[in-house]
Amino acid sequence: MIPPKKIQMVDLHNQYLRIKPEIDRAIQLVLDSTSFVRGSQVEAFEKSFTDFHDGAFAISCGNGTDALQVAMMALDFKPGDEVILPVFNYAANAEVLALLGLNPVFVEVEPTTFNIDANLIEAKITAKTKAIVPVHLFGQCANMEAILEIAKKHKLHVIEDYAQAIGAVYSFADGTKKKAGTIGTVGCTSFFPSKNLGCFGDGGALVTTDKVLAEKIKMIANHGQRVKYHHEIIGVNSRLDTLQAAVLDVKLKFLNEYEQKRNTVATFYDAALANVSFLETPLRSKSSTHVFHQYTLKLKGIKRESFKAYLYNNGIPSMVYYPVPLHLQKAYKIDGLGEGSFPISEDLSGRVLSLPMHTEMDEEQLLYICEVIKSYQG
C-alpha cells in the first residue's frame, strides 16, 4: 500500500494555510504597531478567552507550565505542602511542585479514561494536603463531580490542568454543564503549537470564576505589580507575547470547528478499528465530551516497538504518551515508590500508542491508516 500523501501527527502548516489571510492580517497589525509586549491584542484575546469560558476571568501568561506555577503561588502554597496529582501524566505538574518546594502525592489513574482515579484520592489526603490537580488527559475531563466533593469535604483547592481538553464540557448529575478549566478553583492551559488551540510559539493562560484570585494571578504573572514599578507581592515574569495573542484571537474563532473535525477523525477510527483484536480504541466518558487532543490506543498481545516501526515503514507516524510514569522518572522518584507501585500506569506506559490526530486529516488518509493497521500480522 502506498500512502495517499504525507501523513503527519499534527499538520500545522495546512491548518495555517486555511486561515492564512486572517492570521497574516493579525500579525501585520502587531508589526505595524511595534507593541510586542502587552499590546492591545493581549487584552483583546483575554476578553475573547473570558467569553469562551462563559465569563470566567482569563489571564494570559508565558506558557502552560508557568500557568501551573502562578496558580500555586496565587493560592499561597508553602514549601512542604502536599499536592495530589495523577502519576500517568506529563512532567510539568511535578516540575512546578519541585520548583516551589511542594511535595507531590501520586495517585493511580483509571485504565479506561487515563484520568486520575477519584476513588483513590481520599486515602492520600493528609494534614499537609492543599490541592488536587486533575489532568484532563487526551481530551476529556476527569471525574470532576467526585473530585469536587472530596475537595469540599477536606477544604482543598482544585487546579485543573486542561491543556489537552480545552473546550471539553463536563456534565454533573443534576444536569449542570461546565467547560473544562472553569470547574475547580482555577484552570491552567497551554497554547503550545500542537494543542487544540495552539499559537506559533509558547503561550498559556489561567481561568477562574474568583475575581479576587484573578487579580492576584494577574499581578503575580507581571512581577507582582498592579501598577508599574510598585511591587506588592513576589511575582514572576510570564507574559503572552502580543504576536501570539493576535494569532490566538484568530484561531479561537475556529476552535469549535477544529474540535468537530477531531471528533470526525476519532469516530472514523472508532468504527474502522472496532474489531481489531490487538488493540482497544479510546473510551469516551459519559460525563464529559471529548475533544481528542490525542487518539490513544491500548495495544494487546503485540510488541509496541515492532508495531510502531511497522507503521513508520508504511508512512504512518505515531507517538507514545507517556513511556515512563512520574514515579519512575529519575527527577521525581520518591523513596518507597518503585516498580509495581502503580501497576495500571506502568501497564499503560508500556502499551499506549497515539495515532495521527489533527484538523487537516482527510478520509483517504484515514482509510489508508486503518487498512495498514488491520493488515498487521504481529
Structural key phrases:
378 residues; alpha/beta; Aspartate Aminotransferase, domain 2; Aspartate Aminotransferase, domain 1; seven-stranded mixed β-sheet
Give me the number of helical elements. 12
Name the shape in a single word: globular
Note the run of SSEs as H and E.
HHHEHEHEEHEEEEEHEEHHEEHHEH
**Terminal CA distance:** 17 Å
CATH superfamily of the largest domain: Type I PLP-dependent aspartate aminotransferase-like (Major domain)
Secondary structure category: alpha/beta
- How large is the share of residues in beta strands? 5-15%
Largest sheet: 7 strands, mixed
Indicate the mean pLDDT: 97
Helical amount among residues, as a percent range? 25-40%
Cα-based radius of gyration, to the nearest Å = 21 Å
CATH topology of the largest domain: Aspartate Aminotransferase, domain 2
Query: Mind telling me which CATH architecture of the largest domain this is?
Result: 3-Layer(aba) Sandwich
Oligomer: single chain
Number of strands: 14
* CATH level-1 class of the largest domain: Alpha Beta
Give the tally of structural domains.
Answer: 2
- Enumerate the strands of the largest sheet in spatial order, edge to edge or round the barrel: 1-9-8-5-4-2-3
Low-confidence stretches: none
